[in-house]
């Protein structure tokens, strides 16, 4: 008894000591008083959002800036480091302020309990840091950042106490983090114009407010606004920039729109002449100057340089040298204008030179870019980054960044409908970029936001804090946490993972096996009959799981539909449409008839896509998303009714029974170099066990003649009969050299034969590159001669860093 009593006493005193010193639970059940400085628009917005959040979750009464608060109240003080505070809190706060002052977007929490009065002080090193701290708390009380954009329900809380411990947040890994709204013509634009914001008939201030709120809640800070012809320029609506300021979002413009202009909407050839710097220089400079003058007092990230009116090369430059020379001149003029109006030293004005498409060629051809401009590297539109900074470039004051696609319009084929970029690919490429010091700006081409919600979350989470990912947090874990938080579902992540994996083999938009330009007739897939059946079964099984996994809690149904059900089912139906057509095509054209079961199944799947999409647009969330989902963007042939695809030649893909696949991670031995090595990775991969050559920052290719020193993988295979002919295919991911001047090379030696060098590198938009990105593979085949019966080996030597080998295929003839 005595013992029990003393244990109780210890627990009791420990509890009182803890709650006196550092109260970590906040009681929202009574009055909440939010104290904040009303002079800063973002702080006001944050306070308002927080008030609304609290009121939606608790029944508490929320006041602003009450001087005399009752003892029972919870005071939440929102402040920026250095701002004054009441005398009794000064001591507490001064140490904290010292730690965060001068940092970028950092926040801290300090709890105080005095005389039964609770105070939580949220301090930001700057206004955005403060907003992140406050909205992090909103998330904690149950307001998910996706509450509006994915209808994640806000649940009334029965437990009023939320634990918050004294903390100082990380400083974001990447300084500027955001999205590019692009190719919005089939989703975001019609939805905004006809459903959400009919008053402007466009993506206007009301829509932007919602987008900016999402960005802020996801701890992002940057937008490249929508810029397609269907949308008015961002600055067309004077209020847009004020809304951006209210939400603390920095505005930039895409790679094609220097100096905060949208040429498609704002440059009128009829009245302004050609958008040609060679023939119309003064008008163009004036056009830029007017805009810079207009927006100089806002927070902007300036795109520098000049391309064509839209997404094309600069007009009028007859040679690449001329384009280089003229772009250099243009940059000087633009910097003169920035200096004149923005009134800051140039190295404090964020400026981006996006090395996208032909601009990368200009850079490769020697274009000089002033040191304080950020080099924004880009992917090849399909998720493979085309280059990153070398050692010298890494020393640039302006640093580097990445522009990355999760959605794309263009050659060889669009993917504007669903969001299927493999999260593991995003993770791999962006981790590589981070390691190569691309830390100044990350922009994700997110299409219409929906249905690319998860790509956006992952990209921005990595940009905000890379550490957990560097320390081994897998993307799968990230996805699980996300679906758990949004859908209270442990199964959904596994289902989505299968969806991404199947789309890694072939995206739903690529199932027509056609290309955007020229528009070819859609033809049968190149899956073998066995693969067709396996893929069909996989999708059909997945569909069942998706339906079985529907949340029992009906309030989660809408979120589940848009985040899990629609993308997976729609992608499955698109696959089935083609896979059943493949079966149908097995019959010669003359024998095909309209009642064929396979054709009927294909038609049924086509119809299901229409039905699912109609539900998305008309019934989901009570019609909130009307016009958001278009299941045939740009009307490409892949989206056609199967009857339009009937007169297609059969294409027989022969099964190869004598193929042996070896996952690249299944080597029999590995020898590492001194500071160079092969690393096994489970994803992104087809085989589940790939290898990657590292370190990424090696900065050079290894000497292929010194095979003894090269990291080496050894594989074995058996041949049963003498004089057997075997081909060896090496399948890699279609990565690009990690920096200019390097390749995508490996050495390969079969038995004791000579070492051969293989390079997976592709150039520009070659046919090979097109096939690679459509299949996520790069392949080389060694036609081998005869082998005698017995055990044979082949060795793979590392030459270039950042080569990912997936698997090998031995084809026995
Ligand atoms: O993905 C891109 O960055 C470009 O292709 C875009 O700038 C462009 O607007 C494209 O959507 C086609 O119009």
UniProtKB/TrEMBL annotation:
GO terms for molecular function: hydrolase activity. Keywords: Hydrolase, Signal. Residues 1-19 form the signal peptide. The keyword Transport does not apply. Pfam families: GH115_C (PF17829), Glyco_hydro_115 (PF15979). The keyword Signal applies. Residues 655-812 form the Gylcosyl hydrolase 115 C-terminal domain. It comes from the Bacteria. Gene3D superfamilies: 1.20.58.2150, 2.60.120.1620, Chitobiase/beta-hexosaminidase domain 2-like (3.30.379.10), Glycosyl hydrolase family 115 (3.20.20.520). This is Glycosyl hydrolase 115 family protein. It comes from Arcicella lustrica.
